[in-house]
Predict the structure.
Amino acid sequence: MKALVVDDDLALADVVSFTLRRAGHEVIVANDGAMALERWKLEAPDFIILDLNLPKLNGLEVCQRIRVTSKTPILILSVRDEDDDVVAALHYGADDYMVKPFSPRQLVARVEAVLRRAGVEHRSPEQLTAGDLTLDCLRGEIIIGGEPLGRLTHLENQLLQTLMLNQNQTLPASTLIDHVWGPAGGDKAMLKQLMYRLRTKIGAASKNTRLETVPGVGYSLVTERKPPKR
Amino acid sequence: MKALVVDDDLALADVVSFTLRRAGHEVIVANDGAMALERWKLEAPDFIILDLNLPKLNGLEVCQRIRVTSKTPILILSVRDEDDDVVAALHYGADDYMVKPFSPRQLVARVEAVLRRAGVEHRSPEQLTAGDLTLDCLRGEIIIGGEPLGRLTHLENQLLQTLMLNQNQTLPASTLIDHVWGPAGGDKAMLKQLMYRLRTKIGAASKNTRLETVPGVGYSLVTERKPPKR
DNA sequence: TTTTTTTGTTACCGCTTTGTAACCAACCTG
DNA sequence: CAGGTTGGTTACAAAGCGGTAACAAAAAAA
């Protein structure tokens, strides 16, 4: 597994890196919050060990931004041991919180526990298909019946991904809002507008896939996959 | 969410229970390892708070047995603070490990982090059935004898769910009002109107299920589950 | 830095849902 | 028997919801 270790203390970053490499992980290091976000985007690590006290962008902010679009496991490793710190980090999406000085063995065990729970599902699939509709998740491009239809904006992409991953199921508005906007939060008016935009782009192009409203509940991506049997 | 709290220290089990209930969870308690397994099987909790030092069957053994067949999130709460203990528990499948004395706030935050990662959704029954009548609770759609009949409004859905969950029992008007309107409150005139609307939608479509008035008391969903014997 | 695109916010409109009041028949009580 | 209550039905106003559009602010791209 590929790890991103974020700490402005170079010596400690080395120790953590060594610990993780010994446990069989590949490690990339970032020494400040901005570099962390950059490396996260470019390297797509499987998990992140994140300090809180960072130059340029603190760890909590990093965590929050990552959580907007990603479920990559995040373990906080910090000198801060107050309840408020722990609770805040966990609230912003961290999966675990360890206080320095830390036990290398315990760090490895906790990494493994979180990865076990996370499974492989946190990785975004490269492509999703529903009926004759295909979404290139990375590029946000939609293809219908082999014909490229155009590109989605970031939020449109997240919404369609969520719907496609749960095709033929009704997703409550609250669930969609959580998945699209994450801890930053959104509201029903924003979802309504986004859904309108998504429908505008997809329109009636697909022959067997449509975006359905479930009044008072939410939305569903419906595919007529099974033609009536005769 | 339903929690199973396992601790032989009754006072501590009470504190943990209180903490979790305050956070909105339902709590069941077991005081030894054997009872824990029994309750886990019977109650199907959404997560488990597990002590290690338990009579009859220690916590590690409980964790191990549960993990053979289940992914139910498990948080260890123990006086043991040695690395070996933490690493072993995490290795045997625990999702998190906290040492006593514990911070209630941090316990709640860690429970939430683990549940979030586990993707445990608040569960409500997806479908309810009474006789030949089926209700999709999320979509509010009614199906009779396999034929979709239509969609209920939110309040109609709540009313029918309450009646179906208590089929063949008389529910007083006050109970129905509480369940349908909750803290917002309702009154008998509103219930009367709502029942009329529900009857209008369900009508006489069902062959073995009907909405019955109990004068001066309330209503009941009656199913003739046992066909007359011939 | 400027331009373009994306996103958030507000408004409008039509349709649906819900609350409220009224009417009527049936039943019960004094 | 008259009056009051209850339950079913109807009608309409008020509230809410979902689709669509416009514009300002923020973000991204050139």
